[in-house]
Design goal:
six-stranded parallel beta sheet, Alpha/beta knot, about 240 residues, about 25% strand, 2 domains, Ribosomal Protein L25, Chain P, six-stranded mixed beta sheet
């Protein structure tokens, strides 16, 4: 937890009082005391510092000064979701790595019962994303949307929702793209398939929409491993 974040509703006239995991971190890890400055920020807002003005009964009160911009997202992700337990592990990492939008799509090999998972409820996934932001020290909260009919969405809605021409589909076979050669107009849009892989038809449809294939090699990776490896490679180009 490298920056303590607050929801807008937690801040009143520049002051916030908090408990729970955040306060425990401040008191036990940072050895917080009155007068100490903390790195703080507002979810989807600016960053800055918070001066501890009171500590009482496990609650910490800080006076905030947020006057700097946080890091902006650099990539959007089209993701055929893995099993909920893997997705739960992945969400904080996506927030930490700088994803702006996450579109979960119903590719053919996605398990059908995923769409009933409690993880898709905002009250469940939002804290996971915020945890990732606090690790990265930034504030831009990724948005999550779901698309059950992937093929229909690709044909009818993709270009309206994403204007960028910088599009890459992760696929272990027949890669014809190196990231340094990818079109650099707009924010990167990356498509990552299910753990069973995209079907040939799905890859063809993505290519029709301007996606270039990109491979990390012939090994087929788990989704959480593949996504982190892809971002590590692509954010440096």
């Amino acid at each position: 937890m490298n920056r303590i974040l607050f929801e807008k509703g937690e801040i009143s006239r520049g002051v916030a009082t908090f408990g729970g995991v955040r306060a425990e971190h401040v008191l036990k890890v940072l050895h917080g005391e009155v007068g100490q400055l903390l790195k703080t920020g507002e979810v989807d807002g600016p960053i800055g510092t918070g001066e501890i003005t009171a500590i009482e009964d496990g609650l910490v009160t800080v006076r905030l000064k947020h006057d700097a911009e946080a890091l902006a997202p650099w990539v959007d992700l089209i993701l055929a979701p893995p099993r909920p337990r893997v997705m739960k592990r992945l969400l904080p990492q996506l927030a930490s790595l700088g994803v702006g939008r996450i579109v979960l799509v119903g590719a053919k090999k996605v398990e059908k019962d995923f769409w009933g998972a409690t993880l898709l409820k905002e009250e469940i996934y939002r804290p996971l994303l915020i945890d990732g932001l606090m690790q990265a020290g930034t504030t831009a909260l990724p948005t999550i949307s779901t698309v059950r009919s992937f093929r229909k969405w690709l044909r009818e809605d993709l270009d309206r929702e994403f204007s960028t021409s910088r599009r890459i589909v992760a696929h272990p076979y027949g890669a014809d793209c190196r990231p340094e050669r990818a079109e650099k107009s707009g924010r990167l849009l990356l498509a990552v398939g299910p753990e069973g892989g995209w079907t040939d038809e799905e890859v063809a449809l993505l290519e029709e929409k301007g996606f270039s294939r990109y491979s990390l090699g012939p090994r087929i990776l788990r989704t959480d491993t593949a996504v982190v490896a892809l971002f590590a490679r692509l954010q440096s180009v």
